[in-house]
Amino acid sequence: MNQIIQIAKRELAGFFDSLMGYVLIIMFLGFSGFFTWIYGDDIFFIGEANLNIFFKVAYWSLFFFIPSLTMRSLTGELRGGTLELLLTKPISYWQLILGKFASTVILISMALAPSIIYYISLWSIGSVDHPAIILGYIGLLLMSMSYIALGIFCSSISDSPIIALLSTLFIGIFFHQIFETIASSSLGIPGSIFSALSMFTHFGSISRGIFDLQDFIFFFSMIIFGLYASKEILVSRNLKA
Amino acid sequence: MDIVVEHLTKRYGPQKAVDNISFRVKAGEVLGFLGPNGAGKTTTMKVLSCFVLPEEGDVKIGGYSIREHPEIIKKHIGYLPENNPLYQDMNIIDFLEFIAKVHEIPKHLIQERLLDMVMVCGLEGEKHKLIRELSKGYQQRVGLAQALIHDPDILILDEPTTGLDPNQIVEIRELIKRIGKEKTVILSSHILAEVEATCDRILIINNGRVVVDGTAEELRKQAQGNEILKLGVAGGDINDIFEKIMEIDTVETVDFLDFECQLLEVQSYPNTSSVKDIFDTCVANNYYITEMTPIETKLEDIFRELTTH
């Protein structure tokens, strides 16, 4: 556990040293605040006391922000040779990957946390569907964790951050939108398979305040699969290198 | 802690980087690992430090196998990898503190260890600089500091002096010698003088196999064989001198080294010395000796002889 904490702390300090952390938090709050309160179908326009607009904006902005955070997570270690430094210390593959994972999850949580002001402001204007909003936040966090796991996996396959970024976006867009589009235009079993694979379906249901075990199973299997695959790739790299 | 390497084999594709290597290093010994580039030195060190798993064979360190208990072994090893990877965007103190915490050094001891390392490795003036701002020599010291910070029993250094200037090389060698008094050190290099200066024992590998295992002295003896002298004689015609020297019983061959300066190379028969007879011959013929130097087989020659076929 100590090793995971140390790695996560170092990573997190790295995010802020490189300004990436600040840029992400400011951009995220700026975007989501603008669309939630000021522009287009904003909260006042709809006239309902919910944060659906915010969740929609966050759903897309996080999808683009996360790969830019994870693209260096293992590629940096592979490129700089520091993987050798870490793995010859008393650190296991799992501790390394979980440390990387935890640091990015914490950063995303830090970006999401200030948006609770939106929730509190809304609460002061009208009666709010509390479970829906709380589940919505949980949904955002779980979705972020799934993409972080995917991002770490993509950063283990090559030592180029650009390849990691593009492959995360490429694989991610299938879950994020394409499976949903296919599902909505097909019927029967294929339709339900694609629907079950779509992030859109699961996030949609959770952010509407519906607690369904299926959604949680989807998120957790994506997280576990992503992290496990990254670990296996690192191990096999080392058998070769 | 003893290191026992048993029948280690590691392949990269069809090529064997390390081919059935076995050796032992006793606690407190400084072992020099020599070999031409690509001989398998780095691979062996990566295996010893639990970074790479071998296909065959095993390494036992202090009785623990790298296959079964890498997590225990890693705690007792300080490893400086070949190209000294460091986090370039951290400053020295933060970096060393990170390594100390990863090693689970108790909190109240960390500060003390950090200052110790800064002093031992001569980083005093630079300690708040970012690693990327340091010169190569100082980066190498940081690499050594991170390998030493948890006071390991075994130190594995892969080419610790590459890229350093001569002064730094001397400093690092002194440091290694000092450390070597208390710890087991394995050091790789392709510079023979370095290994000779710092190590108790030399292991030469070539094409993934051990070709020599012994001290520098033993190595010399093994390769020396016949006495060879560089001889300068004046006071007579060089051809006459040549013939007189040839007449000595113990002399096997005589070659001209330099006709003008009257320099000869005299090789004696095995286990004999011609020094006295040469002297007597010269006295008897009224020649005088301008130079007489034994030609010592250099480690370089032994190295070349052993690794070029």
TrEMBL record, chain A:
GO cellular component, one term: plasma membrane
GO molecular function annotations of the record: ABC-type transporter activity
Leader sequence segment: none
Top-level lineage group: Bacteria
Keyword set, alphabetical order: Membrane, Transmembrane, Transmembrane helix
Transmembrane segments: 12-37, 96-120, 132-150, 162-179, 185-204, 216-235
Keyword Ubl conjugation among record annotations: no
Keyword Transmembrane: yes
Protein name: ABC transporter permease
Organism: Ancylomarina euxinus
Lineage: Bacteria, Pseudomonadati, Bacteroidota, Bacteroidia, Marinilabiliales
Automatic annotation (TrEMBL), chain B:
InterPro entries noted in UniProt: AAA+_ATPase, ABC_transporter-like_ATP-bd, P-loop_NTPase
Record domain ABC transporter: where: 3-232
Pfam short name (any one): ABC_tran
Molecular function terms from GO: ATP binding; ATP hydrolysis activity
Keyword Nucleotide-binding on entry: yes
CDD domains from the UniProt entry: ABC_DR_subfamily_A
Keywords: ATP-binding, Nucleotide-binding, Transport
Domain of life, per lineage: Bacteria
Transmembrane segments annotated in the record for this chain: none
Family annotation (Gene3D superfamilies): P-loop containing nucleotide triphosphate hydrolases
SMART domains (alphabetical): AAA
Family according to the record: Belongs to the ABC transporter superfamily.
Protein name: ATP-binding cassette domain-containing protein
Organism this protein belongs to: Ancylomarina euxinus
